[in-house]
Amino acid sequence: MQVTEARGRALGTLMLAALCASIGGALPSFAQTRGPQSVAPVAEGLIEAVVNISTSQAIKGPQGLPLPSVPKGSPYHEYFDEFFDNKNGRSAPDRMVSSLGSGFIVDGKEGIIVTNNHVIDGAEEIQINLHDGSKLKAELLGKDTKTDIAILKVTPKTPLKAVRFGSSAAIRVGDWVMAIGNPFGLGGSVTLGIISAKARNINSGPYDDYLQTDASINKGNSGGPLFNMDGEVVGVNTAIISPTGGSIGIGFAVPADTVAPVVQQLRQYHEVRRGWLGVKIQSVSEEIATALGIPESSGALVAAITPDGPAAKGGVNAGDVIMRFDGEDVNSMRSLPRLVARAPIDKTVPVEVLRKGERKTLQVTVGRLTDDEEKTLGGDDKPAPGGAEVLGLKLSPLTEALRSKYGLDAGVKGAIVDGVDPKSPAAASIKPGDVIVQAANEPVAGPQDVARRIDAIKKSSRKSMMLEVEDAKGGHRFVSVPVE
């Protein structure tokens, strides 16, 4: 049936009126605003501070395919070498390769630019292409491979447009963010999205704490800023997950709360000086949390203490669970290294630990992390005299013969595991040669101490017990084993 234009308008008016009546007489927002609110006012004030970074470096030329040999003395030998540039075994010449990335200006007067370390890594020349098309040579002031952050310096004739850092801790999942990049030197490009997740660990380094966003981050956008709707930098766009190389809505940015102190230290020292606590830690699993009586699997369990380190001097013990550091909650094992790393060196901070069911606040003076310190973060079926067989473990006193058998130092104390029933629950986490040094947070002098702790745990109606175990290499770990 044919509908005239006038009739069509009339039908449209009736339908709109019916829609209004169905929702209480109010027009829906999309009918009033013609789409979402524009972010143009925010972008216009920021885009000049985002730059394109062009780098070049020389790499060795390819060797190419093997060339046929011509006997020396042949009348064509000289011409052959000259044609293939292979005289005296010369290889192909080095070739220059270029790469492009993005960055942003944080100090327009001094000409300080922040970008990713992987954007400028290995570069022999760095050129900054500004939004207005002008170009400046840049020098590298400092870099931090662990957070993938680098800062560059240019010498501008007049102050440049700069942006400031905001709080990445304050931003919430679902908040709008805007990514600006200058990937090909053609000018800034703007993409919009939300924060999809926080505290993402993508196994790229020891301080992973990424913001995840669906704002498009494409090739060449690495090193560009991620802004909140107040125009503050809340992250540095760093990585994407994509099978094609283009954005599929999974991008990651280094949080501003991580970047800002790194930038400050690189400007001041040309290196990053991180705090150090001197502990080896492990996650608090649900089993260990049950054994400790912790209602939530949070905090960082101290597996070992560095002798004479800051934690040891401050009274932290192996077996403590660090719940708060310098006034901030330790929500997981991975969060503690980040909190300690950004703490000022030589500052005395409160450290709240859970010890034997009680919370204690200790005062610890933060040390400085060095490379060396960072790298450290079956037999007879019958028990020996004084031994015990519990939980499928054959425990024996530490004799010289057993120390020699398992390569244990003279200073190791506890009950040695000289056999494990493969069908026992403990077999998954304990092996022959391990030494139980603590049981239920109490020191172990021998096998009978372990047996007594197990009896006490059973009488308390708890279903598991935590053991501190030391291996032949001096490594400490905590395991939770069922006692039923």
From TrEMBL:
Keyword set includes Heme: no
Subcellular location: Periplasm
Molecular function terms from GO: serine-type endopeptidase activity
Positions bound to substrate: H118, D148, G220, N221, S222
Keyword Hydrolase in annotation: yes
UniProt-listed InterPro entries: PDZ (IPR001478), PDZ_sf (IPR036034), Pept_S1C_Do (IPR011782), Peptidase_S1_PA (IPR009003), Peptidase_S1C (IPR001940)
GO BP, sorted A to Z: proteolysis
Signal peptide start-end: 1-31
Assigned keywords, A-Z: Hydrolase, Periplasm, Protease, Repeat, Serine protease, Signal, Stress response
Active site feature: H118, D148, S222
Entries under Pfam families matching the protein: PDZ_2 (PF13180), Trypsin_2 (PF13365)
Family of the protein in this entry: Belongs to the peptidase S1C family.
Protein name according to UniProt: Probable periplasmic serine endoprotease DegP-like
Originating organism: Hyphomicrobium album
